[in-house]
Fold this sequence. Notes:
Strand order of the largest sheet: 3-6-4-5
Mean pLDDT: 92
Shape: globular
CATH topology of the largest domain: Phosphoribosyl-aminoimidazole Synthetase, Chain A, domain 2
CATH architecture of the largest domain: Alpha-Beta Complex
Keywords: ATP-binding, Cytoplasm, Ligase, Nucleotide-binding, Purine biosynthesis
Catalytic activity: 2-formamido-N(1)-(5-O-phospho-beta-D-ribosyl)acetamidine + ATP = 5-amino-1-(5-phospho-beta-D-ribosyl)imidazole + ADP + phosphate + H(+)
Subcellular location: Cytoplasm
Distance between the termini: 68 Å
EC number: 6.3.3.1
Largest sheet: 4 strands, mixed
Pathway: Purine metabolism; IMP biosynthesis via de novo pathway; 5-amino-1-(5-phospho-D-ribosyl)imidazole from N(2)-formyl-N(1)-(5-phospho-D-ribosyl)glycinamide: step 2/2
Low-confidence stretches: none
Number of strands: 13
Structural class: alpha+beta
CATH superfamily of the largest domain: PurM-like C-terminal domain
Amino acid sequence: MPNPYAAAGVDTAAGDLAVELMKSAVSATHNASVLGGVGGFAGLYDVSFLKDYDRPLLATSTDGVGTKVAIAQAIDKHDTIGQDLVGMVVDDIVVVGAKPLFMTDYIACGRVVPNRIADIVAGIARGCSATGTALVGGETAEHPGLLGPDDYDVAGAATGVVEADRQLGAHLVQDGDVVVAIESSGLHSNGYSLVRHILSGKGVGYTDQLPEFGAGVSVGEALLEPTRLYTAPLLDLLDARPGAVHSLSHVTGGGIAANLARVLPVGTWVEVDRSTWTPPAVFRVLADMAGTPVEDTEGTWNLGIGMFAVVDAASASAVLEDLRAAGLPAWTVGTVSTSVRELAGFEQGAKGVDGGAVRLVGSYAG
């Protein structure tokens, strides 16, 4: 007898096959705290260890990767978009000093292609393993008629924990603290609507090649460079140097100044010195295509800075050494000040946060 659901465009057998293909990758993220296996109605995580905390605070974050998925779909490459999702979600949790515990994902698609779904989830699983996060559940939803057959979107949510007296934030930031920039791996997962608009306007295709991106590298492949994962090395840093880091900022939507302003207290200001770094080629090429100075994109793209760490001045050199030893290029971009001054031209707070004031000054190196 014909399956009426299949006639409506939903292939439950393909969904079951996708689950089978992703099982081993998901299971590899599990630890002793994960109860049950893949496929339950809910993921279970044993938090008995929280009894050892004096005052455990749970941290949670949810996000997606935006229109970066359109590029993955255009060149049929889906094995890195999952890492982008983990970066967008889990690296927000470490900002408050929390250790991630577990994550769930959601994939909406027009048609379940088992190998494609498995590639996406395998990327999520690799990112979870790299950040010490258990992937305890997820959902793949087929939406024929709402999404095109090869369209999909991804989202995720994660939970972490931090001891209350080790929570990072603006409340710890002091006059004279040093602002350390930590290098991004590229665009990460923000500003892709602008990227796609620029390329479309110039008639540049994702399979085209540009010399600035390297021999044999297509535009699409360059744009799909995975988001750098900061969680593990930052947690190591926080353990090794307690009290050295006062706040962290993940440079995502809103750009450079706005995201730094969010983790500074009201009454403080920072001037970020552009001359301390050179924006990577991908940003300069896109800005040139758009016919705009790269400075005009500072509120959209990270321009080479994926994270900021606001650190105690006496610890700044040691923090820089630790970050570099962990494979994270880092440098000093400014100093926190509480002196009274005119703040015209500064970005003050963002995303509903009444934070500090930040502006970028000078010219980029190179």
